[in-house]
């Protein structure tokens, strides 16, 4: 029972706040990296200890991550998260659900199958909501999710998006995304 019941654990962020100055060993390592020197002396290797601790990221790194998050509100999935949790093309080719896969003709309504039992409309809104501009009332009204929970259509959904361009982008990015340990076929 313990191993068969999937438990979704969210991402945990671990931070270390080091208030003291950077130790001399770490300064040597960072200077060596700046010089692109690939070889270290045996004395430097012996003094480094087990593992390395690097200083906090510079403001440039923080700005890059902020730009990505500014792109889409946090209530929807990020592009990075979509890419990380998606099967590769090789993995898709090995699975039977992708065996006869064809994207179909461009349309503003996309069809999603191979959904897990516990998938709800809010999960699909979290994924496909990123392709809708919720500031626009027209686009907000056109965004529609029909999740089939009973009968022969169980595990399938129809998602209406505002235009064909958004639907094509959603199809390309979300196809193969693993949701509740099952890859979606879009």
TrEMBL record:
First-listed, main subcellular location of the protein, grouped into a coarse class: nucleus
Annotated CDD domains: RRM2_RBM40_like (cd12239)
An MF annotation (GO) of this entry: U12 snRNA binding
InterPro entries: Nucleotide-bd_a/b_plait_sf, RBD_domain_sf, RBM41/RNPC3, RRM_dom
Pfam families: RRM_1
Key words, A-Z: Nucleus, Repeat, RNA-binding
Region described as Disordered: spans on this chain: 49-68
Domain RRM, residue spans: 108-186
Gene3D superfamilies noted in UniProt: 3.30.70.330, 6.10.250.610
Top-rank lineage group of the source organism: Eukaryota
Gene Ontology biological-process annotations: mRNA splicing, via spliceosome
SUPFAM superfamilies: RNA-binding domain, RBD
Keyword Repeat annotated: yes
UniProt keyword annotation of Nucleus present: yes
Subcellular location: Nucleus
Cellular component GO terms, alphabetical: U12-type spliceosomal complex
Name under which the protein is recorded: RNA-binding region-containing protein 3
Organism: Alectura lathami
Lineage of source species: Eukaryota, Metazoa, Chordata, Craniata, Vertebrata
Gene: Rnpc3
